[in-house]
Amino acid sequence: GQEWTQAFNTAVSFVTNTNWQSYSGEATLSYFSQMAGLTVQNFVSAATGLAVLVALCRGISRRSAHTLGNFWVDMTRATLYGLLPLCLVLALLLVWQGVPQTFAHYVHAVTMQGTDQVIPLGPAASQIAIKQLGTNG
Fold first, then answer.
1. Helix (H) / strand (E) containing 47
2. Tens of pLDDT along 26-43?
């Protein structure tokens, strides 16, 4: 639902870990594109930063070693053992506090002034969890 310039801007901003959004994600993108595109990129981006930090720490502590380890192993470990469990706990906490995490259609409501309002729902809690843990929010 975006024109090509907006889609390119979104792709570049998520790949570079800036996550600059000049649109409302829930109203502009589908639930699938948020989960398959943006959330995956948030995990990969945060895991990349953690893997680089681990390589830096190894480089400082292992002065006589000739290798810094395997980047892909570090990135996988950061995702599976660090980010995923923390995001699961944070997403459950957010859902407990009332943040939507659903695939339901948008809710149409009437405001106190009598105007119609569309309230987007979607998988918000999981998006917020990785966005905050990946220092993108």
1. helix 40-61
2. 667 788 888 888 888 888
Distance CA 84, CA 80 (A): 6
First CA to last CA across the chain, in angstroms? 23
Element (H, E) at 20: none
Determine contact, residues 131/137, Cβ cutoff 8 Å.
yes
Could you tell me the CA-to-CA distances from 8 to 12, 15, 26, 47, 113 in Å, in that order?
6, 11, 18, 23, 38
Report the predicted TM-score, pTM, of the whole model to 2 decimal places.
Answer: 0.77
Among 137, 134, 120, residue whose Cα is nearest residue 41: 134
Burial classification of residue 105, based on how many CB atoms lie within 10 Å of its CB (0-12 exposed, 13-18 middle, 19 or more buried): exposed
